[in-house]
Amino acid sequence: MSTVRLSNPHAEPVEELDVKKTTCYMCACRCGIRVHLRNGEVRYIDGNPDHPLNQGVICAKGASGIMKQQSPARLTQPLIRRPGTERGAGEFDEISWEEVFTLLAERLKKLRETDPKKFALFTGRDQMQALTGMFAKQFGTPNYAAHGGFCSVNMAAGMIYTIGGSFWEFGGPDLERSKLFIMIGTAEDHHSNPMKVALSKFKRNGGRFVSINPVRTGYSAIADEWVPIKPGTDGALLLALCHEIIAKGLYDREFLARYTNAGQLVMQNPDADDFGLFAMDPEGDPVNPDYPHNKYWWDRLTDKLVPTHTPGADPRLRGCYALPDGTPVKPAFQLLLDRLKSYTPEWAEGICGVPADTIRRLAHEMGVTARDQKIHLPISWTDSWGVEHDHVTGNPVSFHAMRGLAAHSNGFHTIRALAILMSLLGTIDRPGGFRHKAPFPRAIPPIAKPPRGPHAVKPNSPLDGMPLGFPADPADLCVDDDGRPVRIDKGFSWEYPLSAHGLMHNVITNAWRGDPYPIDTLLIFMANMAWNSTMNTSEVRQMLNDKGEDGEYRIPFIVVCDAFQSEMTGFADLILPDTTYLERHDVMSILDRPISEFDGPVDSVRIPVVEPKGQCKPFQEVLIELGSRLGLPAFVRPDGSRKFRDYPDFIVNYETEPGSGIGFLAGWRGVDGQKAIRGEPNPKQWEMYAKNNCVFHYVLPASYQYMRNWNKGYMEWAQRVRMRRDADPILIHLYSDVMQRFRLAAQGRRPGRRPPPELRERVEKYFDPLPFYYPPLESQSTDTTRYPLNAVTQRPMAMYHSWDSQNAWLRQIHAHNYLHVNPATARAAGIGDGDWMWAESPWGKVRCMCRYSEAVEAGTVWTWNAIGKASNAWNLGPMANEARKGFLLNHLISEELPMQGSSRRMSNSDPVTGQAAWYDVRVRIYRAGDDEPKESWPQFEPMKTLPGVTKKRPGVLTYFVGNWKKRS
Fold first, then answer.
1. Nearest residue to 614 via CA among 579, 574, 573
2. C-alpha closest to that of 392 among 178, 174, 703
3. Model confidence at 830, in pLDDT bands (50, 70, 90)?
4. Partners of 675 in beta bridges
5. What residues contact 704, with CB distance under 8 A and at least 6 apart?
6. How far is residue 939's CA from residue 892's CA, in Å, rounded to a whole number?
7. Which of these, 606, 626, 612, lies nearest to 525 by C-alpha position?
8. CA dist 83 → 75, 89, 574, 842, 855 (Å)
9. Which of 588, 611, 746, 953 is deepest in the core (most CB within 10 A)?
10. Cα–Cα distance between 427 and 439 in angstroms, integer?
11. How far is CA 62 from CA 779, 812, 869, in A?
């Protein structure tokens, strides 16, 4: 804490403000901020110039944090649904925290003693999934997931299963050295402040910026070229770009040969059970039994079969060869060539709407920039095969992509295609291209595995396996002996095998239906599942209230933890008031979702700057308390006594295993705080973070900062500090034998687990070892003549989901939302700018206001997400613009689709990962009648203001007026 004097010519005496530094949480960027206080009250918030992430830059969300504290929607005390009242009626009574813990401990104890999977814990966009996941594992339930399944698990899985890392927290574009930057499917708030800073420098340094997106807003507004594309067709474009780059010889052959599996030989006997798997050298050293390296190249210098990475050898990337036993084999690169042969620019133009000439020009620009503008840094390093290099080379073409690519049912293969395009250009972990951030790169796939079946779920026992993980083989799936799902969301089953983040969007529907089984208690943290965090919102709200034939709720007990009165709190049986980010301790852990930089690991903390409001309690403290009362092994000593006093004590003293020296925080470890990454618990760790801007930044030696997939020094360091279990190289998977193993199981060629009969064709089709294009599943089952338009949403830069659209200052920017329509498209439907209109899908319709925009592709309509509110939600009042003019596109989306050729319904998700297909919905638009109400539809009964929530709804000037009176 420090003191700052502000001079004010109109007031005496000069004010003295206390300044406290912490980490913001308005969105996933987690920027450093300074909070200025007078008499314990927040006066204003600005960016911390000494924070490595945002370097003092702050956005509207961060600067408006003061009004989050002043929000009229703040929950201030625990509440329980009044006996005899209906769920959703808003009738609640106050309850003490002791009563809360007693009630929950008794209920959860019974479940843990009998059937732990009857308890489900699902969390929204929180920043402590390492803790919530650990709690679920310790409890013994497989039914845990975070927001990733309805956010961008396709991005994470598609890239991690290809290059060992991903965009967002785990990697990104090196714009400091890049010459050409292509942004695809990225909304204007993705990576917000750091991206703004990097883009401004990139543009000033003469870099060229190309945006490929159906909508031109935010970052795209400053792009040198905007390439509008039809939503859900990005995969076609990316495959055509790969086709052109190879056809023109603009790929980095040296990079592919040495650092990818391009030269490794794949078995090609279509009648054999090992068809499509890599040929293995039985005499070779596997190096790592879990990720064998004993594969073959065909050496072009000796024209012979040799073990992969034989010194002096250089693999052929094309052709067809034969093993000594006569088995035909092809290099993986040849198989990629075969796949790309038909994916021409002309083919892609007819799908994505981007002219073939534009595709050719972009491919040529990417390839020539990568080839002719190489970067050479005088940094010596040694690769994993012992070869010493006296410099690091970079191909300065970089990309960034997010949910626009991910939130489609074809997103996994689209993102695989993007990762392969980046690899063809030789940009992975090199200057000016894509660079990893610790703790990535990981093995492909990472070693963490989910529970492998019902035997992993036992009463009074921790879960055998991680709640979330990365399957490498059918044996890793969480299914029973008949191949049926063990998880309530059906994650890690044959329906969605690689669902690394779970399927949060299907939890309520599955629990309501009792498919695959009913649950007892659902704990939802920081997720508005009755509104913008769910697909098919109107029906899901009914499911939350629905009862069975016995008169009991189909989901017996719902606990909601949130800081605000959201639409979801009305459906709770028990409400736990959470704190805001200014009121609690928290960590941005390397075990979780770190804020690492390209040059090394970074983590950070939040330290409270104000006292919690009312009886608010951090959810972290709730978990520590419950874990202790339930006697979960990680939270108690062998004699059953409590191990941790509170959450800060837990963070300091928790170790992944006794004596490991690894905890949630990597900085200032050891008894004297002199160790980093690994070290004994330090009782003054929080104090040391507070003295250092709440951030720990470990800078790797320059020789460890690049080529980390194959960097011997980095890998050995990562193994020493246990950031990796192994130190072997991580080859890029142009060809995925992981995918092929699942396909072979579906074909009945492998011993062990096989999909149920009704899913075999599905698994065989979508588990292709090479990316391919197929239309989104919803488009395949929709009459696109009747519903010709794509509809998408995105978060505005000034708001983050529904949490900020109740902020009095930010409401002045986005008080309600419009449906943005290309003028030609709107006029063809007889809709004027500002008219009331209908948007209708096969699943529902909404009435909203039209806004003309030339910055939207003609076949697409779009709106901001979560601006529209249910009446009186967030304590905004029943006549608030958000409720009467704002609308929610989720009413047009379905969480389930008919399974092709069957009456059985499947999740509206990617069949590989279970990613929610938010952006696949098709709509038609038409003008609302002149006699219709000038308000949005559907409307709902106004929510009741909960006990403890203020009755007064302050206006935008309330804060200023109140403080002016205090000064007067």
1. 579
2. 703
3. very high
4. 669
5. 381, 711, 713, 714, 717
6. 14
7. 626
8. 21, 12, 12, 39, 53
9. 588
10. 19
11. 39, 15, 22
Q: How far apart are CA 309 and CA 322, in angstroms?
A: 19
Query: What are 304-332's pLDDT values in tens digits?
Result: 999 999 999 999 999 999 999 999 999 99
Q: For residues 73 and 87, what is the distance between their CA atoms, to the nearest angstrom?
A: 20
Instruction: Give alpha helix (H) positions in 857-918.
Output: 881-884
What is the Cα–Cα distance from 401 to 415, expressed in whole angstroms? 9
CB 488 within 8 A of CB 144: no
> Among all chains, which residue has been given the structure tokens 């949490």?
803
Cis ω before 516 (30° cut-off from 0): yes
* Distance, CA of 505 to CA of 491 (rounded, Å): 11
Could you check whether the bond before residue 933 is cis, i.e. omega within 30 degrees of 0?
A: no
**What span, in angstroms and rounded, lies between the C-alpha atoms of 944 and 967?**
36
pTM for the model stands at: 0.95
In this structure, what is the dihedral angle of CA atoms 904, 910, 916, 919, given to the nearest 10 degrees?
-110
What the block records as the tokens of 936 is: 């949005």
Strand-strand pairing, 208-212 and 180-184: parallel
Cβ partners under 8 Å of residue 618, min gap 6: 578, 579, 583, 584, 585, 586, 612, 647
Q: State the burial class of residue 361 (Cβ atoms within 10 Å of its Cβ: 0-12, 13-18, 19+).
A: middle
> What pLDDT score does 959 carry?
58
Q: Residue 500 and residue 415: Cα distance in Å, rounded?
A: 15
Structure tokens, 822 = 């290309």
Element (H, E) at 765: helix 757-766
**SS3 for 606?**
strand
* Residue whose token pair is 């007889």: 830
Please, what is the end-to-end C-alpha distance for the chain in angstroms? 27
Spatial distance between the Cα atoms of 400 and 419, rounded to a whole number of angstroms: 11
Asked, as a colleague might, if the bond just before 286 is cis with ω within 30 of 0, I would say no
Residue 227's contacts (CB-CB under 8 Å, 6 or more residues apart) are: 210, 211, 212, 213, 354, 358, 362
Distance of alpha carbon 867 from alpha carbon 693, whole angstroms:
34
Quickly list H helices, 425-536. 507-513
Beta strand pairing call for 2-6 and 180-184: unpaired
Please check whether residue 965 is in contact with residue 958, taking contact to mean a CB–CB distance below 8 angstroms.
Answer: no
Are residues 307 and 333 in contact, defined by beta-carbon separation less than 8 angstroms? no
Q: Which tens digits make up the pLDDT trace of 771-811? A: 999 999 999 999 999 999 999 998 888 887 777 878 889 88
Residue 961 has pLDDT above 60, yes or no: no
Residues sharing a CB contact under 8 Å with residue 454, sequence separation 6 or more, in sequence order: 480, 486
Give the phi and the psi of residue 800 in degrees, each rounded to 5.
-130, 100
Alpha carbons 614 and 559: distance in angstroms, whole number? 20
Cβ pair 770, 336 in contact under 8 A: yes
